From TrEMBL:
Protein name: Cytochrome P450
Annotated pathway: Secondary metabolite biosynthesis
Organism this protein belongs to: Gymnopus androsaceus JB14
Coiled coil: none
InterPro entries with a match to the protein in the record: Cyt_P450 (IPR001128), Cyt_P450_CS (IPR017972), Cyt_P450_E_grp-I (IPR002401), Cyt_P450_sf (IPR036396), Cytochrome_P450_fung (IPR050364)
Length: 518
């Protein structure tokens, strides 16, 4: 039919029609090419993609360097998996906030979900009804209004922190870990932590350290080559799988042991009201024995996630603050002068003092910016094809907000300078980025922000932080070094912590007595 039609046309008209059709095809292909044009990024190699261009240590720094070459939206492939790196606040907000309906899923973390058993953790639950259920569970305890009721727990644990620092200042790292763990364990499971040797603290630390240690290159690859999870444990490159079994046991204990303790206390009627007990009551008013297996898994996942994640990131920010004060004593002295002028030296600071301590607020911001706790956040997954700035972003793309790069967008970014927020009041507050974006933004951010602020304020008020000295009396200047890992902890460093006066201990004892009366 088509050939008959063509043969019946005069030659000149046939040529005209051919030209029109040819140009139409070219225009259509050009339009489709523009629609399918991917964002800029490093040229991928055949089959392996950009895997050799992405370092396994501190990738956020490499991604930040790509900002100057490719722009703030960088596309790459690791094997066949597409990835999108967002190096600016604008891009992160445009996609993860404004288009959160299609950017709120999580990738399938084969290592964490299939091999280590993290599939019930709130941070890794796929977007959908179960995700919304988990968020609802967390919001009941950690929304902006509810956290006000948790202040006595925060104030009490800060008093214990100061006491421990005065008694054994050389163990500052352990004291910070106990402080962070004690707060979240009390809130989630209702139990008191009296020392860093507490079994619940040990459970979280063991699971966390093993998870970090398991992050070998082979373990990373299994997320992009899922078939690797079927490699026999005796085979080459299967070390990650053997380690995964050990990590799974530790993670299961971290999720199950405190949960079962609360469940037993509920049955015996001795439970202290906490997030886990309230969720059990809400899901099963007739008693914990009638809890469904799904509700049990969800409660364990929510409580375990808050328990492990809150402790690690709080310790990171607090350690970064102490290191910064050791390296920048003039900042610490200035914060102490403001504290003395507003609060005085006869009581501890409280939340009502916060608005009257603007320089301290800048110090807290800078501690969060200078060493971002989780530099790349937790990856999102695009649920449908999308177009952004005329670029095509394919469904299933792993999307990462480079929070490190976002917070480097200031003058002298590597320098600890709280004054930058006074000089430029419009400068981004790091707390608007470090907790993530969109519907995946950290639901415990209000509790974390209050805990960190009050702890830093109390340290400024009660102790002197300075450089340690060697056996000859020479000051030791530590290096601003940080460990590679999901959470960017400072490396161990020496420092000196001394009470500001002899009456600090009495003041702490009085504050504790007042708190325990509540």
């Amino acid at each position: 039919m088509f050939s008959v039609l063509i043969s019946s046309l005069p030659l000149s008209r046939w040529l005209q029609a051919s030209i029109v059709i040819a140009f139409g095809c070219i225009a259509y292909r050009g339009l489709m090419f523009r629609r399918k044009r991917l964002p800029p990024g490093p040229r991928p190699a055949p089959i392996i993609g950009n895997i050799l261009q992405v370092p396994f240590t501190s990738p956020q720094e490499t991604f930040a360097e790509w900002l100057h070459e490719y722009g703030d939206v960088v596309y790459l492939k690791v094997l066949r998996q597409p990835m999108l790196i967002l190096n600016s606040l604008e891009a992160a907000q445009d996609l993860l906030d404004k288009r959160s309906a299609i950017y709120s899923d999580r990738p399938n973390f084969v290592l964490l979900n299939d091999l280590m058993g993290w599939q019930n953790a709130s941070t890794h639950v796929r977007y959908g009804p179960r995700f919304r259920k988990h968020r609802r569970f967390i919001q009941q305890t950690f929304n902006s209004q509810a956290v006000a009721s948790l202040r006595p727990v925060q104030e009490r644990e800060i008093c214990y922190l100061i006491q421990n620092l005065i008694d054994k200042p050389e163990r500052i790292s352990q004291h910070l870990q106990r402080f962070a763990a004690a707060m979240i364990i009390k809130v989630t499971y209702g139990t008191d932590v009296t020392s860093n040797d507490d079994p619940f603290v040990q459970l979280a630390q063991r699971a966390g350290s093993l998870t970090i240690q398991s992050g070998t290159p082979a373990a990373t690859l299994v997320d992009y080559i899922p078939v690797m999870k079927y490699i026999p444990t005796w085979a080459p490159l299967a070390g990650f799988k053997r380690n995964a079994g050990i990590v799974k046991e530790a993670v299961d204990s971290m999720f199950n042991v405190p949960y079962e303790m609360v469940k037993s206390q509920m049955i015996s009627g001795t439970v202290f009201p906490c997030m886990t007990s309230r969720l059990m009551e809400a899901c099963s008013p007739s008693g914990v024995h009638s809890l469904s297996s799904e509700d049990e898994a969800d409660i364990k996942g929510v409580a375990g996630t808050m328990y492990s994640a809150a402790e690690d990131t709080t310790v990171c920010v607090m350690s970064s603050f102490v290191l910064a004060m050791v390296l920048h004593p003039q900042v610490f002295k200035k914060a102490q002068a403001e504290m003395d002028a507003v609060v005085g030296k006869d009581r501890l600071p409280n939340f009502e003092d916060r608005s009257s301590l603007p320089y301290l607020e800048c110090v807290v911001k800078e501690a969060c910016r200078w060493n971002v706790p989780v530099p790349l956040g937790i990856p999102h997954r695009l649920m449908d094809d999308d177009i952004y700035r005329d670029y095509h972003i394919p469904r299933g793309t792993t999307v990462m907000a480079n929070i490190y790069a976002i917070l480097q967008n200031c003058s002298q970014p590597r320098l600890f300078r709280p004054e930058r927020y006074i000089e430029d009041p419009k400068l981004l507050d790091p707390r608007d980025a470090i907790f993530g974006f969109g519907r995946r933004r950290c639901p415990g951010r209000h509790f974390a922000d209050q805990s960190i602020w009050l702890a830093i304020a109390s340290l400024v008020s009660t102790v002197d932080i300075s450089k340690a000295k060697d056996s000859l009396g020479n000051e030791i200047t530590p290096e601003a070094a940080f460990l590679n890992g999901f959470v960017h902890h400072p490396a161990e460093f020496p420092c000196s912590v001394q009470p500001r006066s002899e009456k600090i201990s009495m003041m702490i004892d009085q504050s504790l007595a007042d708190i325990l009366k509540i």
